[in-house]
Automatic annotation (TrEMBL), chain A:
Organism: Companilactobacillus tucceti DSM 20183
Spans annotated as Disordered: 25-47
Protein name: Proline reductase
From TrEMBL, chain B:
GO MF: oxidoreductase activity, acting on X-H and Y-H to form an X-Y bond, with a disulfide as acceptor
UniProt keywords, alphabetically: Oxidoreductase, Selenocysteine
Protein name per UniProt: Proline reductase
Protein source organism: Companilactobacillus tucceti DSM 20183
Top-level taxonomic group: Bacteria
Family annotation (Pfam families): GRDB (PF07355)
Length: 81, 150
């Protein structure tokens, strides 16, 4: 999906919980906060964390200059299972 | 030195193939960008048809001004408990609206997209669903797309 959107000329960035999977699938740009699958954009109701993740992810649009990079983000949420 | 060559000889070890890179350059500053959301997390309007949890290559359109409480998830491939508490965990629409209000981005795309990723009919996603969503985003002059998947 990301690749399809990118192929029509629209830049994309993906927030990944599983960086090895998105690398394998050929992501053009991604960020990876330390989050479980299902809370890629951060802990439920943690507005500060979610804003941080979304903002830092968008900022990478202006920073990244070549495909395939996955940028770790300094946010951590461990779900209580 | 000459090496003996066998046509069609393959390793028995599975070697994963990473696809060729794709890259659309960023041409604007964030504050001038209209940002869309596309998520593989199975997000859709509560009033919409649910995804078939056994596999579904269709997608749902979500207007940019949809209230968070009018959204839900149907996805059989991950633990939905966080996203059921707060849709913004996978579909940060409230956060993007706040960032637009604050002038960090110009605004949201008029329509966002939800689909059910995590496998299934990859060919249909690659050849049909992906290009369809891409075409619609292009027609709406969306400058960049933020995604959650994987």
């Amino acid at each position: 999906m990301q690749r399809a959107i990118e192929s029509v000329g629209i830049p994309t960035i993906l927030i990944a919980a599983l960086p090895p999977v998105v690398r394998q699938n050929g992501t053009p740009r991604a960020t990876a906060p330390r989050v479980p699958m299902g809370a890629n954009a951060g802990e439920p109701h943690n507005v500060e964390m979610q804003t941080g993740i979304v903002k830092d992810t968008l900022k990478q649009l202006e920073i990244l200059d070549s495909p395939g990079k996955i940028v770790p983000l300094p946010y951590e949420y461990i779900a209580k299972v | 030195m000459s090496l003996k060559k066998y046509d069609g000889l393959q390793s028995e070890i599975y070697v994963p193939i990473t696809p060729q890179p794709v890259w659309a350059p960023v041409k604007k500053e964030l504050k001038d960008m209209k940002i869309g959301i596309a998520t593989a997390a199975g997000v859709h309007l509560k009033s919409d048809k649910r995804f078939n949890l056994a596999g579904d290559t269709t997608y749902r359109e979500i207007p940019w001004d949809t209230k968070a409480e009018d959204l839900m998830v149907s996805h059989g491939g991950y633990d939905n408990s966080d996203v059921n508490k707060d849709i913004n965990c996978m579909f940060p629409i409230d956060r993007l609206r706040e960032l637009a209000k604050a002038g960090f981005i110009k605004g949201l795309a008029p329509v966002e997209y939800g689909f059910m990723g995590g496998g299934g009919d990859i060919e249909a996603f690659t050849d049909k669903t992906g290009p369809e969503i891409a075409k619609k985003l292009k027609a709406e002059d969306v400058d960049a797309v933020i995604m959650t998947a994987g």
